[in-house]
Amino acid sequence: MNKRAIQKQETRSKLIQSAHHLYAEHGFLAVTMEQIAQHAGVAKGTIFTHFQSQDELICTIIQQLREQFGNQVYQQMRAVKDDIRFMLTWHIELLQEHEALYRHLIIERTLLSESAQLIYLEMQSIVSNYIFLVAQQAMEQHRIKKMEPYLFFNTWIGLLHYYIANQDLFQPAGSVLTTHADELVAHFYSLIKI
């Protein structure tokens, strides 16, 4: 790769990092392309040589999150086998890494483009599948109740999303997931255990 190509890749990465930071801080809909370019230290026009639109940039950010979540949840699923409590705790830890961005994503999802929403749904589908594979083993061993995959994951993610979306009620400063992780896992486990 020549120097110009490396520089172009570095600029693109800097724009993505700036967008990630600003979206996590302010939300997807409150941030302009000009603010992202300014935060990255590049001219406004430069951003459009890398991304044709803000939607393309938002989709790139969500796609990266989807890939990271998918890869990490897959690796974790293979490691924990049938320990559903450990898997749920680990899922919370994964979300903690991107809690601010994820919070804006779940709150603003329906206002984003169809493309962005589809990537988000793919991410949730991948995560739910891997978590349910762990749960299914525990179900087969009669340690937790048998449930349909969609009901299992929707109940779990609904609990998490309620706390994340209402952070101001549960943990106005800091991470709501860090503060309530043990409580959330214990409560959900009490609902599914036999």
Q: Estimate the global geometry from the Cα principal axes.
A: elongated
CATH class of the largest domain, named Mainly Alpha
Number of strands: 0
Distance between the termini: 58 Å
**For the report, how would you describe the main beta sheet?**
none
Oligomer: single chain
The CATH topology assignment of the largest domain is Tetracycline Repressor, domain 2
Order of helices and strands: HHHHHHHHHH
Instruction: Report the total helices.
Output: 10
Using the CA coordinates, give the radius of gyration. Answer: 19 Å
- How many domains? 2
Share of residues in strands = under 5%
Helical content stands at over 70%
CATH H level of the largest domain: which superfamily? Tetracycline Repressor, domain 2
In the CATH classification, which architecture of the largest domain applies? Orthogonal Bundle
Main structural class: mainly alpha
Mean pLDDT: 95
Ranges where pLDDT stays below 50 over 5 or more residues in a row are: none
Pfam families: TetR_N
Domain HTH tetR-type: 9-69
Organism: Listeria booriae
InterPro entries: DNA-bd_HTH_TetR-type_CS, Homeodomain-like_sf, HTH-type_Tx_Regulator, HTH_TetR, Tet_transcr_reg_TetR-rel_C_sf
Describe the structure.
The chain is mostly helical and 194 residues long. The protein folds into two domains: 1-51, Homeodomain-like (Arc Repressor Mutant, subunit A, Orthogonal Bundle); 53-192, Orthogonal Bundle (Tetracycline Repressor, domain 2). Helix content is 80%, strand content 0%. It has ten helices and no strands.
